From TrEMBL:
SUPFAM superfamilies per the UniProt record, alphabetical: Putative modulator of DNA gyrase, PmbA/TldD
An annotated Gene Ontology molecular function: metallopeptidase activity
GO biological process, one term: proteolysis
Descriptive protein name: TldD protein
Origin superkingdom: Bacteria
Signal peptide: none
Cellular component aspect of the GO annotation: cytosol
Organism: Proteiniborus ethanoligenes
Coiled-coil region: none
PANTHER family: METALLOPROTEASE TLDD, UNCHARACTERIZED PROTEIN TLDD AND PMBA
Residue span, Metalloprotease TldD/E C-terminal domain: 243-453
InterPro entries given in the database record: Metalloprtase-TldD/E_C, Peptidase_U62_metallo, TldD/PmbA_N, TldD/PmbA_sf
TM region positions: none
Length: 476
């Protein structure tokens, strides 16, 4: 079913064009991003049910204007044709305030050239199998409750089972002197969380699904419920790992965590502008095994961060960050690209219309290779298969990486022993980790049920993943 465009934004387009026309009489570049995002989140657990508006809901606009030095922005959530003169006056006052601050500043302020845009008018509306509005909230909760109730039949050690589902309908327009763009899509995500207990020993396991999908997400979750409970039970017998350096196979989820932390944040090019990214010194140089090719881009894959245009009106791309081990480029927002005199990659994303656009990841993943997973396992004398990410951190200035992983499945003489270690911390120097990659599987999976922050704030949706990869890492 085709996703429909926001009626609110459609009705405001005429007024937005008028606003841009009037502002263009005094300013050489004017653009407006309009956003209308809505949705619901549902949770069912043993003790109850909850339904809430999605945390991503927003409705409003942000105007960007070249003020003669650089760019001023003004966000607003009310737009009426009869109030357009007052709005213009408020915008002009904000711009004059910005200019006075620039003149009075003792800090050297960089000037920015005018944004040059190709003339384009286009729209893209995505398709999902089941639109959220076609299924009532009661029906969704009933289905989730059935999945939860069935889970308690799988194990007497299960003490709680939580299932979450979220649907989010995103509509955006971007209008400038040369562009008129529209997009509307739905992303969905769901997760299951099983908590088991034996005596005083409590463990948990989770799994998730995501994508540009609607209520069909619930069917995908249902098929995973039994395995979630089974793997939670196995963790009750988990052991502590002996710290050391090991040959490991990283699951697609862990490969995605490495991609995200290693050369995701590390190649966001607003960090190049601020001289805070070591990657800027290594463009064109070898940073990984020749088996490693890494992508990022809204057009590189289909998941929760796949869009037609970014929050600065730049069309999404498929950017090859690493090509057979060679670092080729970073990912950029529009203003960073202007500053660095590079081509923008369509990675300018805002937490909301009230927030600044930064260079942010979209779909970040390693390409697949030629190896079979069973051959990869049989090649390991003593090591582990790492699976299920918990969290990660990286240092874009010094290239350190730390990944928290829920489980490591022991491998000896090319076979699983049945032993599981949990939790596990993987650490290393990014080029050492990526250069150690010696085998890459064919299949690639992308995951997008989480969110990504810029440091500790500015949260946006992002997806990552890859194939199974064999590498040499430090575990503790």
């Amino acid at each position: 079913m085709k996703v429909h465009m926001s009626i609110y934004l459609t009705n405001q387009k005429k007024t937005l064009k008028k606003l841009i026309e009037l502002l263009s009489e005094d300013f050489k570049y004017v653009s407006v991003l309009g956003t209308d995002t809505c949705g619901k989140s549902y949770q069912v657990r043993r003790t109850g049910v909850s339904i809430n508006d999605t945390d991503w809901a927003e409705r409003g606009f942000v105007a960007r204007i070249h003020n003669g030095y650089n760019y001023s922005e003004y966000s607003f959530n009310e737009l009426r044709e009869e109030g357009i003169e007052e709005l213009i006056q408020n915008i002009k006052e904000k711009i004059n305030e910005d200019i006075e601050k620039l003149k009075a500043s003792s800090i050297k302020v960089s000037s920015y050239p005018l944004i040059e845009e190709e003339r384009i008018t286009d729209k893209l509306f995505k398709i999902v199998k089941i639109l959220p509005e076609e299924v009532t909230a009661e029906e969704k909760i009933k289905k989730m409750t059935r999945i939860k109730d069935e889970a308690f039949n799988y194990s007497e050690q299960l003490v709680d089972f939580r299932i979450s589902y979220e649907e989010c309908h995103v509509s955006k327009v971007f209008i400038s002197q040369n562009k008129e763009l529209e997009q509307s899509y739905i992303w969905g995500q769901g997760s299951m969380f099983a908590i088991v207990r034996r005596d005083d020993n409590t463990k948990y396991y989770y799994d998730s699904v995501s994508g540009l999908k609607g209520v069909e997400i619930l069917d995908e979750l249902q098929h995973k419920a039994k395995d979630v409970v089974r793997l939670a039970e196995k963790l009750l017998d988990a052991k502590k790992i002996i710290p050391g350096e090991y040959d490991v196979i990283c699951s697609p989820g862990i490969a995605g965590l490495i991609a995200h932390e290693a050369f995701g944040h590390g190649v966001e090019m607003d960090m190049f502008v601020k001289n805070r990214a070591k990657a800027a010194e290594y463009i064109g140089k070898e940073v990984a095994s020749e088996l490693v090719t890494m992508h990022d881009g809204a057009a590189a894959a289909e998941n929760v961060s796949s869009y037609y245009f970014d929050d600065e009106g730049v069309l999404g791309t498929d950017t090859i960050i690493i090509d057979r081990g060679i670092l080729k480029t970073g990912i950029s927002d529009l203003l960073s690209a202007l500053r660095l005199k590079t081509t923008p990659t369509g990675n300018g994303k805002r937490e909301s219309f009230e927030r600044k656009a930064y260079a942010r990841m979209t779909n970040t993943f390693f390409s697949g290779g030629d190896d079979k997973l069973d051959h990869m396992i049989s090649s390991i004398k003593e090591g582990y298969l790492l699976d299920v990410m918990l969290s990660g951190m990286e240092d874009p200035k010094d290239w350190g990486i730390q990944c928290m992983i829920l489980m490591a499945k022991e491998i000896k003489d090319g076979k699983f022993t049945g032993n599981i270690m949990s939790p596990v911390i993987m650490t290393g120097y990014v080029p050492d980790v990526l250069s150690s990659i010696s085998m890459v599987s064919e299949e690639v999976e992308i995951f997008g049920s989480g969110a990504c922050g810029k440091g500790y704030k500015e949260w946006v949706k992002a997806a990552d993943g890859g194939p199974y990869i064999k590498a040499r890492v430090r575990l503790g």
